[in-house]
Amino acid sequence: MTKKSGVRDETLLASGGRDPESNHGIVNPPVYHASTVTRPTLAEWQNRDYTKDVVYGRMGTPTQKALEEAVALVEGGDRAIAVSSGLASITIALSAFVEQGDHLLVTDSAYFPTRNFCNNVLAKYGVETTYYDPLIGGGIADLIRDNTKVVFTEAPGSQTFEVQDIPAIAEAAHARGAVVINDNTWGTPLYFKSFERGIDVSVHAATKYIVGHSDAMLGVIVTTDAHYERILNNFRYWGQHAAPDDCYLGLRGLRTMSVRLKQHHENALVIANWLKTRPEVSRVLYPALPDDPGHTLWKRDFEGACGLFGVVLDKHYDEDTLAKMLDGLELFAMGASWGGYESLILPGKPVRTATSWNAEGTLLRLHVGLEHPDDLIADLEAGLQRLVT
Ligand SMILES: *Cc1c(COP(=O)(O)O)cnc(C)c1O
Q1: What predicted TM-score, i.e. pTM, was given to this entire model?
Q2: 3 inside domain
Q3: How remote is the CA of residue 153 from the centroid of ligand 1, in Å?
Q4: In the chain, N or C: fewer CB atoms in 10 Å?
Q5: 188 in ligand 1 pocket by Cβ < 6 Å?
Q6: Helix (H) or strand (E) holding 313
Q7: What is the number of structural domains in the chain?
Q8: Which of 337, 346, 365, 367 to mutate to test the pocket of ligand 1 (most atoms within 8 A of CB)?
Q9: What is the distance in A from the centroid of ligand 1 to the CA of 385?
């Protein structure tokens, strides 16, 4: 499907990547399980084009391509590549643009495994990473060197939720020929339009809101025609692959993402506003709140907020006390990941090297799910009472 002018996001979510006429009129693209893909003639074998055709299971089945088409349409990129996880989307995108002797700039608020990859893999191959203050904005220009190939952003930041001035960062990066890669997992293809804000490569943990039901690992890289082949080649070199069943789940999740996100946003606002009234809470880190330090940038650059935010408690609680609060929660479960329909809570421990994180109290990360907010409030209220009694 090509981009129809004037068609809105909800319509693209419902129609992107679908072609019932080529499949007996069946609404959803089928799951193709494949390794071998045969060609009837030598000429067709010799002329297969991996940038367009289905050539081998590892290079993507029609199920994968349907997901890629839909995500690219919604985010406004030219092409997308589905990969095995959100982390794989980051590692493949980063390693596509750097080589020995190069330098890259990564926000100090990045998702921790991104930092792991830079420090433990890229460093091993002679690529140097400098971490920068997420709030640096156009000041990033001072950190860009002649060998800086990539500026990596993530907004809002993992655990700490600072909103970066991405257009200003992108302008400075482009002036020096660096590519801007953004982890857009929080913003999703729906709420942060990367390609209108100067991003060259947008990476997603589709595991989160795109899949939306906590039952698959999936990543998507969205980019422009200018960078597509370079990333596609790197995807081939690394042997990364998104499994067809998981692509199907991603595509199915995408169909309802706009209604789910609206409800996550609404529920999260109710919970965040309620938390702000609590004596055990010092601050809520959620850019959708008007008094959040990132609110102005969020309002300028985002079209909505998801259900993930941070809470700084009034003081540092020891582990036993924190356990009294968290162990007894009935609706908020403790577990990695987010973006499913269910609520989650975890203590946070941001790792910083360019800046410091000195919050006045214990940091918690909440994912507000699709349960009724009054029930979630009752659960949290009982938990906060256990914290202080
Ligand atoms: C979860 C997450 C990832 C990694 O996604 P996986 O699918 O778990 O590999 C990347 N970035 C952010 C911001 C995340 O929250």
Answers
A1: 0.97
A2: no
A3: 14
A4: C
A5: no
A6: strand 308-313
A7: 2
A8: 337
A9: 32
H-type alpha helices, the chain: 9-15, 42-46, 62-75, 86-97, 112-117, 166-175, 188-191, 225-238, 244-255, 257-276, 295-301, 319-327, 373-388
**Among protein residues, the one whose CA lies closest to atom 5 of ligand 1:** 86
Look at the alpha carbons of 24, 29, 30, 34 in this order and tell me if their dihedral is positive or negative.
positive
C-alpha 109 to ligand 1 mean position (Å): 13
Residues 249 and 375 in one domain: no
Measuring from atom 2 of ligand 1, which residue has the nearest CA?
205
Percent of the chain beyond pLDDT 70?
99
pLDDT band at residue 1, thresholds of 50, 70 and 90?
Answer: very low
Q: Report the pLDDT value the prediction gives residue 206, as an integer from 0 to 100.
A: 98
Ligand 1 lined by 205 (C-beta under 6 Å) = yes
Residue 115 a catalytic site member: no
Of 255, 272, 305, the last residue of a domain is 255
Q: Is 292 a catalytic residue?
A: no
Q: From the CB of 216, is ligand 1 less than 6 Å away? A: no
Integer Cα distance of 111 and 380 in angstroms:
26
Same domain, 45 and 158: yes
For residue 339, give its domain range. 257-388
Whether residue 190 is predicted with pLDDT greater than 80 in this model: the reply is yes
In a domain, 142, yes or no: yes
Given a cut of 80, whether residue 10 has pLDDT beyond it is yes
Span 276-296, mean pLDDT?
Answer: 98
Active site residue 341: no
Residue 200 lies in a domain: yes
How much of the chain exceeds pLDDT 90, in percent? 96
The one catalytic residue in 9, 165, 183, 246 is 183
Ligand 1 atom 4 nearest Cα: 86
Q: Give the pLDDT confidence of 44-99 residue by residue, as tens digits.
A: 999 999 888 999 999 999 999 999 999 999 999 999 999 999 999 999 999 999 99
Question: How does pLDDT run across 139-179, given as a tens digit for each residue?
Answer: 999 999 999 999 999 999 999 999 999 999 999 999 999 99
**Structural element, H or E, at residue 223:** strand 219-223
Q: Is 301 a catalytic residue?
A: no
Query: Which atom number of ligand 1 is nearest to the Cα of residue 87?
Result: 9
Residues 233 and 318 in one domain: no
Decide if 31 contacts 244 (C-beta within 8 A): yes
Whole-angstrom Cα distance, residue 150 to residue 203?
Answer: 14
CB 85 less than 6 A from any atom of ligand 1: yes
Coil, strand or helix: which one is 341?
A: coil
Is 2 within a domain? no
pLDDT of res. 5: 64
Separation of alpha carbons 364 and 376, rounded Å: 15
